[in-house]
Amino acid sequence: MPVSLPAFDLAYDELRARWPESTQERDVPTPCGRTRVHVYGPVDGSPLVLLPGGSATGLAWFANAPALGERCRVHAVDLLGDAGRTERRGTPLKSAHDLTVWLDALLDGLGLARTHLCGHSYGAWLAARYALHAPRRVDHLVLVDPTQVFAGFRLGYLLRALPTLIRPSEARARAFLAWETAGTHPDEAWQRLYALATTVPGRKLVTGARPRTTDLSMPVLVLLAEHSRAHHAAKVADRARRMLSQGEVAVLPRATHHSLPLTEPKQLNERLLAFLS
What value does the mean pLDDT take over residues 125-145? Predict the structure, then answer.
């Protein structure tokens, strides 16, 4: 399991304090370890599971939770294998299939026979994989600037990310974020948490092939960042429209890949809630 660092834990608790006061913390047992879920919204609201991007933790949705939680029961997840308060114990995590089995167990533990499912970046890749694995459990699927779903990464993005991947440090992660989010000014507490997350020992994000999005059978909303440096938003939008039989695609102005979902959350929240309605 990932080992927490004191500085990371402090940053985690600081961002947790930004969530609404009535937010609950649940540690859900699964065969792969206990999973931390931040839960907010009316008990009788439509369930909405939120999967963050890598290193972001489930807390990254703090700016979205108040609005989404007016109508939905929000469940924001710390991903298995990433930094955060989710443990990795028991059944080894080796493949994309293992991740879908983990999500099966997580939804069972949360008592969710069906749910809306939303993911950002790596979390969007995982959400799409899970929707193909268990389509009867996913009412609506939302993919926020998804990576490795409709297209690969830009070479320039990978080259910029490489120093942080090879020799993780807070300074390198900060420099990478500053480059990718230029002009958007993401929340400082979140930037600190993200940068420290890259340095947590034991992180292991399992990846796999692109999902067969032509086989998605539920309504899908794709929200792309206009200025994403991870990929070319207009090209990804065109490809998504061609591949999805029940797809709605929109490009969010002024956003970058890593500034989502927290920068200018109103446009994302309104699009998402309108889609779920």
Answer: 98
Q: Nearest CA to 86 among 208, 207, 202, 258?
A: 202
Work out the angle at residue 165's Cα, subtended by the Cα atoms of residues 164 and 166, and round it to the nearest 5 degrees: 95
Task: Examine the pLDDT at 172 and tell me if it is beyond 80.
Answer: yes
Q: How far apart are CA 71 and CA 227, in angstroms?
A: 30
Give the H/E segment covering residue 75: strand 72-77
Neighbours of 213 (CB within 10 A): 23
Per-position DSSP letters for 192-261, written without gaps between them: HHHHHHTT-TT------SPP-GGG--S-EEEEEETT-SSS-HHHHHHHHHHH-TTEEEEEETT--TTTTT
CB 197 within 8 A of CB 8: yes
Supply 268's token pair.
Answer: 């994302």
Outline where the chain has alpha helix (H): 6-16, 65-68, 96-110, 122-133, 155-166, 170-180, 188-197, 233-243, 265-276
Closest among 146, 136, 130, 123 to 97, alpha carbons compared: 130
CA distance 207 to 182: 27
Task: Assess whether pLDDT exceeds 90 at residue 28.
Answer: yes
Q: Which of 98, 90, 103 is nearest to 37 (CA)?
A: 103
